[in-house]
Amino acid sequence: MIDEMLDDPAIRIVVCCGSGGVGKTTTSAALALRAAERGRRVVVLTIDPARRLAQALGLDELSNEPASAAGSLDAMMLDMRRTFDEMVQAHSTPERAAKIIANPFYQTVSSSFSGTQEYMAMEKLGQLHARGEWDLIVVDTPPSRSALDFLDAPQRMSRFLDGRMIRLLSAPARAGGKGLRKVVGAGFGLFTKAVSTIVGGQLLTDASAFVAAFDTMFGGFRERATTTYELLRSDGTAFLVVAAPEPDALREAAYFVDRLGSEGMPLAGLVLNRTHPVLAPLSAARARTAAENAGSSRLASAVLRLHADRVDLADREERLLARFTGAHPSVPVVRVPAVAGDIADLDGLRTVGERLAVQDPPASSAGSVRSLR
């Protein structure tokens, strides 16, 4: 399943989402590296603040612009504030852009307004796609349910940047401070939490100046966000939900799958990371019995008991996965066996990529759960 997806020239975007601590960043990097080494020109974008991706790719750090990592693979990390600044600079004159960026109200909105990070991730994804320099864009999303907040970002930012709101603020701003104060009393409470660091009359002055300078740019926000949202829903995009064989992670995975379905997003499948397949067809009960009968061979007894514990763990993982597949029978599942130690270099990422692509039937006394290639 994985190699078919990576090799398909029609697939231009792969989005990895899932809860925290399930190996999403590693999966994204491994997919990107494997696609690049199979002949595609790839960029991987992370909006997870962890630095492990840069380290594994052999880079000192990731920036807001793609950097060459290995062969035809580039990598970058979203800088929310810088992306917002660049967007302002690209859609305004230098003088107006400088005025906007220096405005304290803008500085607060661009760094702390709810949904700004997700909106800027959408903006950066749209920019990368529009540049046309890569055959494939792999997106590593933030942990937990906020990983899907970018699906709401266009609507949330559109409400904030809606034409009616602009008219509400810009008209009294042009009329003077008194009119603005009247508007603030009626409708500006929505923004007071987001701008809590700016108080009193200075807030009103900054807001007025922000709207006056930013007014001409608002129209393009909704259009670009809508374009990127439709891009995510297109046949050229594939979503992979990443989970670990743990109850909480699989519950989050079920939430992601349901949410993607309700949004009409193209789901490619579930990647179940850090599984523990059984290496020999010997049940836990028989292994423990053999361990008891091993006599003076402590090594043989220890190995048999370790095998029995491994079988119990594999059975538990199979039961957990069975609950997920029972509720979502049409979702393909790819198991990725756990790798010893941390993934800290390209060889480690290659190993993960190979395990993503090569799927063997599960060997567990709990029974078989469907695994698609």
TrEMBL record:
Transmembrane segments: none
Ranges where the ArsA/GET3 Anion-transporting ATPase-like domain occurs: 12-275
Record keyword ATP-binding present: yes
InterPro entries to which the protein is assigned, alphabetical: ArsA/GET3_ATPase-like, ATPase_ArsA/GET3, P-loop_NTPase
Coiled-coil stretches noted in the UniProt entry, renumbered to this chain: none
Presence of keyword ATP-binding: yes
Any one Gene Ontology molecular-function term assigned to this protein's record: ATP binding
Domain of life per record: Bacteria
Keyword set, alphabetical order: ATP-binding, Nucleotide-binding
Protein name as annotated: Arsenite efflux ATP-binding protein ArsA
